[in-house]
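Sequence only, no structure available. Ideas?
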Amino acid sequence: MLKNDIFECLITLLDTHNARYRVMEHATGGRSEEVAKIRGTHLGQGAKGLVCHVKGNGYRQYILAVLPADQQADLAILAKQMGGSRASLASPKEVSELTCCVFGAIPPFSFHPDLKLVADPLLFERYNELAFNAGSLERSIILNTQDYRRIATPELVAFRKKN
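Reply:
I predicted one. Tokens follow.
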């Protein structure tokens, strides 16, 4: 799959499942806070996707871990919840191979058989819509939260840092 195919895959998937969404073209934002302002959404509506490598205890798996953009991931908790002993962020090369995207442009959907999708339950508790970069730093999708959960069917795993 080529990088520019990710957006088309997303649109086809969402349309096939009658999702309620809209596409937004925008300037490239650096951090999640900047992108939320550009989109006109709350920071917590952002669905931040982290590609992680969980290993140990006989477990070895790449994980696309999705959480609200106003939260931080606790990779030790993620590893433990998945049955591993440690987790790390994947390298830029691994991210590119598994998602066909660069850091920051990863949508909260996995299109690769070796990339398991998990989401923190908080993602579904606060907002009716989620916003995320759609395979590009200049294009976002704002998607109904329950449509995302229904279509992506992520495994729910609590892995955010507790304040």
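Helices lie at 5-16, 32-39, 75-82, 92-99, 145-152.
Hope that gets you unstuck.
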